[in-house]
Amino acid sequence: MFNRSEHPHTRLNILTGEWVLVSPHRMKRPWQGKVEALPKQDRPAYDPGCNLCPGNSRADGTINPAFTGPFVFTNDFSALLPDTPVGGENINGLLVSKSASGICRVICFSPDHSLTLPVMSEDAIEQVIKLWKDEFESLASNPNIRYIQIFENKGEIMGCSNPHPHGQIWASSDIPVELMKETNQQEAYFKQHGKSLLSAYLDIELEQSERIIIENDHFVALVPYWAVWPYETMIISKRHIQQITEFTAEEDKSFAEILKTLTIKYDKLFDMSFPYSAGMHQMPVNDVEYKGWHWHMHFYPPLLRSATVKKFMVGYEMLANPQRDITPEQVAKTLQGL
């Protein structure tokens, strides 16, 4: 008889329409592959060599102010630029390009070089949330911007270029590929059912309670049924909200609480400052109103079995479709207990 905890199977990602192969029996295989070095755990509150600490010089020579809370500035090496000339090419529909413009911002979460989100106070995290909201509103006021991506790359293993805890906001003139997938899936569901896709999904998750990690008055943190990364999680707002600017003051507090609790659990998983790429997905701006859009936040950690064993997306994952070994249900049970 089929058992999803033992036998290989595929699961549908309802947000993208794509599939993931789950192979739980592979967790029994021995590991003789790459082992990562443990990152440095103790950092000072102030590092004179850090480009992001208060009063220090950044790479382009700009001097940071003596900030005492979260601090935001335009990235000195932005991937998108606001003044890109309009242009591109289209040769027989085969060689196609077009110019891209936008604004890239950096947010230092705290003046303290050592404070990651799980060790910040909830009040301090709430200040970051309010700054995210202010930046979103400011960037959305630019008619050339169509999508605003708020995200954080945490840890050396994720390619983070500076250890000072910080996140980024990239505001682009186009809607990125992943967001178009999620937009199409959510709109199609809403038009058919009159309810947001994630509201319906959350109803099932709360009823089954297998993959729920944390729940408070306004948000739920869970391991998605279709998760690709071993310890992938997602935060979903209970209320059908399309953008972060719609959060009430109470929702700001609840969001800070669940962010802190989830990232603490991550840190306890392998007794380290846990690495991940995390980001919010929300409705595009200066476009049509997508009534099906439902705010959520993804966490994609790279670790597989321990602090030193990384999950690599190679071979079948690159050439066919994503694959995971440990099941989402097993991961949820582990994280619940931390």
Précis, in short:
The chain is α+β, with helices and mostly antiparallel strands and 338 residues long. The chain is 24% helix and 22% strand.
Helices and strands, with pairings:
Elements: E1 9-13, E2 18-22, E3 71-74, E4 88-91, E5 95-98, E6 102-108, H1 122-140, E7 147-154, E8 166-172, H2 177-193, H3 197-208, E9 212-215, E10 219-222, E11 233-237, H4 249-269, E12 276-281, E13 296-300, E14 303-306, E15 309-310, H5 316-319, E16 323-324, H6 328-336
Parallel strand pairs: 2-16
Antiparallel strand pairs: 1-2, 3-6, 4-5, 6-8, 7-8, 7-12, 9-10, 10-11, 11-13, 12-13, 14-15
Question: Describe it for me?
Answer:
The relative contact order is 0.17. The model has no long low-confidence stretch (mean pLDDT 94). This protein has a nine-stranded antiparallel beta sheet, with helices on both faces. It has helices at residues 122-140, 177-193, 197-208, 249-269, 316-319, 328-336, and strands spanning 9-13, 18-22, 71-74, 88-91, 95-98, 102-108, 147-154, 166-172, 212-215, 219-222, 233-237, 276-281, 296-300, 303-306, 309-310, 323-324. It is globular, with a radius of gyration of 21 Å. It is built from six helices and 16 strands. It has one domain (36-336): HIT-like (HIT family, subunit A, 2-Layer Sandwich), CATH 3.30.428.10.
